[in-house]
Amino acid sequence: MRTRTWMLAVCLALPMVAGAHEGESHGAPPPVATTGEALHVLAATGDLFEVVLKHPEHADGPKTPVRVLVADSATNAPVSGAQVELTLTGASVQSLVPKMESPGIYVAEAELAPEVELAAVATVTRGDRVDVLALGTVHVEAEHEDAHEVGDGWLGWSVAGGVALLVAVGAWWVSRRKRGLL
Question: At what angle are helices 154-178 and 2-17 packed, to 10 degrees?
């Protein structure tokens, strides 16, 4: 019975000891996949082309990557070899010429300041076919500093909880032993 009590106490305390902690470097975190990021998506369908604009929810510095996906509106097939121009209009005008990354996917870097709204218009030209599409408003959020502070103090609370748990188990064990139940 005594062995079971100690095993129970150790098993209950292990998650507290194994908690995350600060002060050690485990190397750089692995790169985050683009598909897992929070993205804003704008889309429009014209007579000839369908355009989808994707950009991160938060700006990652002065230049933010944007993806322009272009498909044929009749067949929904990716459009390769098109000339794509993305115009972002706000206090200033940015005229971007995204480069084709893969069939139907064009990439550019835009200056997206947090909390500033920009009207987005895409012009797609392929051969003698031209379509101008109003995509809507591009908007990135300001990153909140307190989002990184969620885990602060977690280790202290974990240690305190572990100590409290060990004291409670110890008190229970002593009381059972005094009564002759162990």
Answer: 170
Task: Give yes or no for a contact between 112 and 57, defined as CB atoms under 8 angstroms apart.
Answer: no
- Give the number of other Cβ atoms within 10 Å of residue 133's Cβ: 23
Q: Are 66 and 53 in contact (CB under 8 A)?
A: yes
CA separation for the pair 57, 39 (Å, rounded) = 5
Give the Cα separation of 42 and 62 in Å (integer).
Answer: 21
pTM: 0.58
The mean pLDDT of 4-30, rounded to a whole number, is 56
Length of the chain equals 182
Cβ count within 10 A of residue 77: 11
Per-residue DSSP letter, 110: E
Cβ-proximal residues to 170 (8 Å cutoff; 6+ apart), any chain: 9
